[in-house]
Amino acid sequence: MWKLVQFAASNVSRSRRFSTAIPGPCIVHKRGADILHDPWFNKDTGFPLTERDRLGLRGLLPPRVISFEQQYARFMDSYHSLENNTKGQPDKVVSLAKWRILNRLHDRNETLYYRALIDNIKDFAPVIYTPTVGLVCQNYSGLFRRPRGMYFSAKDKGEMMSMIYNWPGQQVDMIVLTDGSRILGLGDLGVQGIGIPIGKLDMYVAAAGINPQRVLPVMLDVGTNNQKLLKDRLYLGLRQPRLEGEEYLSIVDEFMEAVYTRWPKAVVQFEDFQMKWAFETLQRYRKRFCMFNDDIQGTAGVALAGLLGTVRAQGRPLSNFVNQKIVVVGAGSAGLGVLNMAVQALSRMEGNTETAAKSQFFLIDKNGLVTTERIDLDPAAAPFAKDAKDIEGLREGAGLLEVVKNVKPDVLLGLSGVGGVFSEEVLKAMRQSDSTKPAIFAMSNPTMNAECTADDAFKHAGENIVFASGSPFENVDLGNGKVGHVNQANNMYLFPGIGLGALVSGARFITDGMLQAASECLASYMTDEDIQKGILYPSINNIRHLTAEVGGAVLRAAVAEDLAEGHGDVGPREFMNMSKEETVEYVKQNMWYPVYSPLVHEK
Ligand SMILES: NC(=O)c1ccc[n+]([C@@H]2O[C@H](COP(=O)([O-])OP(=O)(O)OC[C@H]3O[C@@H](n4cnc5c(N)ncnc54)[C@H](O)[C@@H]3O)[C@@H](O)[C@H]2O)c1
Ligand SMILES: O=C(O)C[C@H](O)C(=O)O
Ligand SMILES: [Mg+2]
Q1: Which of 72, 162, 415, 446 is most buried (most C-beta within 10 Å)?
Q2: Where does the record locate the signal sequence feature (predicted)?
Q3: Which protein residue has the closest C-alpha to ligand 2 atom 2?
Q4: 490 among the known binding-site residues?
Q5: Burial classification of residue 33, based on how many CB atoms lie within 10 Å of its CB (0-12 exposed, 13-18 middle, 19 or more buried)
Q6: Number of neighbours of residue 73 by Cβ within 10 angstroms
Q7: Helices (H), 286-373
Q8: β-pairing, 326-329 with 368-369?
Q9: What's 597's DSSP letter?
Q10: What are φ and ψ of residue 155, in 5° steps?
Q11: Is 418 close to ligand 1, i.e. is its CB under 6 Å away?
């Protein structure tokens, strides 16, 4: 019998803000000052006197015991003072100051840090995640104080199987891995890219309730081709050009073998790999390990949900998706991931073939419109290259403005990494769109790399557009009390649920069916009323709730494909007997929530 009732009883307090129920004990093998210096166990001034006695802490702290609520209020006060004190200073200075204060708390007291993050996710996500995380990566060598996560370098070849045991945590559930080769739209940042796995895993804890003791950010340092970094005397990574070919793959292979030898049930998310390695590693590992590529697959699911939302926003049935003309700007891992998933979804729709589905899309890269006449056509882009006969009035390499004027698309979707590429002329050309409610998705990150700003989109393309961006922008005041809603089309709406669903189902692999289920769950999360207002994605304040739903959908898809091997005490048979609601409840009960647990010392 599976243990829903038992889970429910032991976790009943989790949804309350400051619970009065007593959480279960936590075993600690340290004593005294070592506990104060371990952010996982540290409660700062919050250690009760009895615990101070038990753990050898008496005299190591000021005598007064401060409650969790008071500590929380004190931290928020200092955060708000910092906001006041930095008013008027350059954005970069303010963003880094905010990141520093949060990072210091993260380094000192994880329970308080994650509670603050969960309760203030709308304000804090832009600090610990996109866009500030980009700035942090750019300045990493200067900001570095203490390590977080693991670093495997080309110099560690042959050692990884033993190195993996240097990680102090007994169990690891979620790993986010990068080689730093394409950090957001900022290019190759080498070892400094470690900030991305750290930020993504913070979102895993906040949104998916992954236990922070069981997450592992990883940097695979195979060198960098960033000349500026190679010349920087403070650069902390390997000073050598990136490994290529088999040499590169052998490093990734060795890492993956080491991880799955120690933690066979872990989920690995590949993040911000340059395109060739993003696709290659996905193909190489997806049928061997429980892994996915967030930039290809997570992004695709979020974009597809947005495209379906756009159809609904036009007041049309979803079946009308087959009539949408969509211009995708950027033929990289993200752009092609979106195209592949959208075409899969379209070809499942009644009466639509894959060829017909492809005809709806126009793909543009740095050399313009991609056609079959392209010399050195990238094989990954080839399925979406246009035949000359299908693009009357257009030609190979046609520019974005020309394409938009000619095609009059319903949707203009940017994943190019190039800030401002949706120029005033391009946005104005979208006014001639055949759609009653044209959509503009400026999905590149961070903010400077967005294809256009929200203000410019509403100003030039018109007030009746639907707008989404990868990095957050404020809603736009359109005057007369009207508001242009800004959606954040960021893979953060899906990757936490994909990882969580895979983990708690004990899925062997992450399949297209599971990813499709995640995307459909996000698409159907919004009400018609929201969609009519141009709101395609939930508020980030609801991300924990959404993630539980997505996790449930992924779990059910894994069960349907007979890939769910179970998790903890719950086996595959129990999953099969769960209703939809029960799967979501089960997922929720597996979500960690930050409260101080009584510490019990064990030698
Ligand atoms: N919002 C999200 O959730 C999300 C997810 C993944 C990636 N992204 C963003 O998407 C961007 C691209 O990521 P990627 O992994 O696909 O990168 P990539 O380097 O693999 O691909 C970039 C593509 O853009 C094209 N391009 C470059 N300049 C162009 C121009 N002037 N006009 C048209 N196309 C141009 C390139 O030819 C290439 O095809 C990054 O900024 C990244 O931050 C956002
Ligand atoms: O990191 C993000 O904010 C989204 C995405 O994974 C990206 O690479 O831009
Ligand atoms: Mg990414």
Answers
A1: 415
A2: none
A3: 130
A4: yes
A5: exposed
A6: 12
A7: 299-313, 333-348, 354-359
A8: unpaired
A9: P
A10: -75, -10
A11: yes
The preferred substitution site among 133, 365, 402, 469 for testing ligand 1, maximizing ligand atoms within 8 Å of CB, is 365
Question: Alpha-carbon distance 361 to 460, whole Å?
Answer: 23
Percent above pLDDT 70 for the chain: 96
Distances (CA, A) of 312 to 94, 452, 532: 39, 24, 8
Strand (E) or helix (H) holding 378 = none
From CA 258, how far away is CA 256, in angstroms rounded? 5
Q: Is 190 exposed, middle or buried (0-12, 13-18, 19+ CB in 10 A)?
A: buried
What residues are paired with 369 via a beta bridge?
364
pLDDT tens-digit series, residues 329-365:
999 999 999 999 999 999 888 778 888 888 999 999 9
CA of 445 to the centre of ligand 2 (A): 6
Scanning the structure block, which residue is given the tokens 């095609």? Answer: 407
Q: Say how many C-beta atoms besides its own lie within 10 A of residue 257's C-beta.
A: 15
- Is residue 295 annotated as involved in ligand binding? yes
Model confidence band, residue 507 (pLDDT cutoffs 50, 70, 90): very high
Contact by Cβ (8 Å): 427, 404:
no
What the block records as the tokens of 308 is 């379906």
Q: Is the minimum distance from the CB of 336 to ligand 1 under 6 angstroms?
A: no
Q: What is the 3-state secondary structure (H, E, C) of 138-201?
A: HCHHHHCCCCCCEEEEHHHCCCHHHHHHHCCCCCCCEEEEECCCCCCCCCCCHHHHHHHHHHHH
CA distances for 520 relative to 68, 99, 286, 415, angstroms: 39, 34, 21, 21
What DSSP element (H or E) covers 469? strand 466-469
CA dihedral sign of residues 397, 400, 402, 403: positive
To the nearest 10 degrees (0 to 180), the angle between helices 91-108 and 110-119 is 130
The model carries a pTM of: 0.96
pLDDT in tens, 159-197: 999 999 999 999 999 999 999 999 999 999 999 999 999
Quick check: helix, strand or coil at residue 217? strand
As a whole number of angstroms, the distance between CA 249 and CA 3 comes to 42
Helix, strand and coil in the chain, % to nearest 5: 50, 10, 40
Q: Is the CB of 181 under 6 A from ligand 2?
A: no
Please name every residue paired with 27 in a beta bridge, in sequence order, or none if there are none.
600
Pairing of strands 291-293, 267-270: parallel
Over range 582-598, report the average pLDDT.
97
Task: Give the tokens for residue 301.
Answer: 């699911």
Q: Are 494 and 519 in contact (CB under 8 A)?
A: yes
In the prediction, which pLDDT does 357 show?
81
Partners of 600 in beta bridges = 27
Q: How far apart are the first and last CA of the chain?
A: 35
- Tokens at 63, concatenated: 């005598």
Residues 6 or more apart in contact with residue 232 via CB below 8 angstroms = 141
What is residue 548's three-state secondary structure? helix
On the question of a cis peptide bond just before residue 446, with omega within 30 degrees of 0, the verdict is yes
Length of the chain: 603
CA 523, CA 318: separation in Å to the nearest integer? 11
272 marked as part of a ligand binding site: yes
Integer Cα distance of 338 and 301 in angstroms:
7
CB contact at 8 A, 489 and 441: yes
Strands 361-365 and 439-442: unpaired
Contact between 236 and 219 (Cβ < 8 Å): no
Report, as residue numbers or ranges, the catalytic residues. Answer: 129, 200
The closest alpha carbon to 99, from 58, 144, 57, belongs to 144
